[in-house]
Amino acid sequence: MATEGLGMKTVKRFTAWYIVAAILFIVLGLLAILEPGVAGLGIALLVGWLLVFGGVAHFLAAFEGGGAKHVIFQMLSAIVFVIGGLYLVMHPLLALGTLTLLLAAMLLVVGIFEVISWFRLRGQHASGWLLFNGIITLLLGAMLWLQWPTSSLWAIGTLVGINLLLTGIARLMFGLAGRKVLGRIAG
Fold first, then answer.
1. How far apart are the first and last CA of the chain?
2. Where are the beta strands (DSSP E) in 81-129?
3. Kind and range of the H or E run holding 6
4. What secondary structure letter does DSSP report for 1?
């Protein structure tokens, strides 16, 4: 019986932290939507630093052995990652523009593949949603592409903000549902 009480306390503590994390996601999402330029610059800097850390990881992997080809590949990868990452960190506005252009290109390609998939599956149940998703994705990609570089000021930050907001809301609902289940079990 004491073990059940301890387990229930652990689960309650977990759901409490889950709810706190969800609220943090919601707040960060709202802030990113309100200040998309700042959020976008933050993301560009994050990508730059991740590339630098990836370069360090490649450098360290070069010393794991595996022959001369492995060492040369890892060292060249390390150099490219570190130079690219430092460039992004030192020029975050250019990085933001580049990331926005890459996002636009990716959305255009994904939209094209969604529409092609619809043509192959159009006889299937609910395939219209595939076409709808493809068209919306194409429109979003085209909008970003045609408004580039101006779209760089809002696109990445806004989209990440929306994602953070929706992730936070989903996590909050799961956490509250977990709390409700715990209340039924305990009561």
1. 15
2. none
3. helix 2-34
4. -
Residue 94 CB burial class (10 angstroms; 0-12, 13-18, ≥19): middle
How far, CA to CA in Å, does 164 sit from each of 34, 153, 161, 168? 13, 18, 5, 6
DSSP state, residue 154: T
Contact 67, 31 (CB under 8 A): no
* pLDDT for residue 40: 92
Token readout for 105 is: 């290109």
The DSSP letter of residue 65 is -
What one-character-per-residue DSSP string does 11-53 give? HHHHHHHHHHHHHHHHHHHHHHHHSHHHHHHHHHHHHHHHHHH
pLDDT of residue 4: 56
Integer Cα distance of 153 and 151 in angstroms: 5
Question: Nearest 5°: phi and psi at 123?
Answer: -85, -10
Give pLDDT, residue 23: 94
So what's the pLDDT on residue 125? 78
- Averages of pLDDT over runs of 10 residues in the chain (187 residues) are 61 83 94 94 94 94 83 92 95 91 93 91 81 90 91 88 88 83 74
Between CA 181 and CA 5 the distance in angstroms is: 15
